[in-house]
Every structure is written in C-alpha cells, then in structure tokens.
Amino acid sequence: MSYGFTYGLFYVAVASYAKLSAKPGTEATTQAVLFTTHDSLGAGLGCVLAGIGFDTFGGHKTFLFASIFAGSGMVLSIILHLCVRKQKGVIDVSLPAHE
Fold it and tell me: Sign (positive/negative) of CA torsion 12, 82, 24, 40?
C-alpha cells in the first residue's frame, strides 16, 4: 500500500508511542501488537465497512460519510489534546531518565 508521506509519519509515530509507553524490555512486543492490530483489525474492518457502504449508499455517500467521520475525529482529537495539555500544563514526550 502506498499512502505517501503521512502514512510514513504514522508508522514512526506509532513506533515511538509504543516504545515510550512500554515497560522496559517489552518495547518490541508492544510495537508488534500495535502494528498487528492496525494492519489486521483496522484494515480488515475498514474494508468490510467500506464494502457495506458502497453496496448500501453508493460511492459518493460512502466517501461523504467517511469524510465526516474523519473530520469529526480530528476535531475531537484536537479538543482532547488541548484539554490534556491544559490539565498537565506541558506534555512531556522525552524518554524517561535511567537510574
């Protein structure tokens, strides 16, 4: 699959998030679980829902609904990010210091 620059950034972000949130020694397992979930469950469910949408609503309405869903998700993500930032003050994404 070729999605361009943003898909490459997505993979880097998922790998970084998995490494930063995993317990020491489980980084590779956490990354594997996240990537497997995205590639199997996410892609499979997306294909099934898109197929049902195309059969039920047609191509134009399916893309319209998908765009509305994605736009709503983006707005919700921005709102949640701002709420977390306001609550914490600053979001720290650096690696924890080793003792």
Answer: negative
Which token pair is 72? 């709503």
As a whole number of angstroms, the distance between CA 59 and CA 97 comes to 51
86-67-78 Cα angle (round to 5): 5
Residue 14 · residue 34 · CB < 8 Å: yes
Chain centroid to Cα 77, Å, comes to 11
Positive/negative CA dihedral, 54, 60, 37, 39: positive
Q: What is the pLDDT of residues 43-76, one digit of tens each?
A: 899 899 999 999 999 999 999 999 999 999 999 9
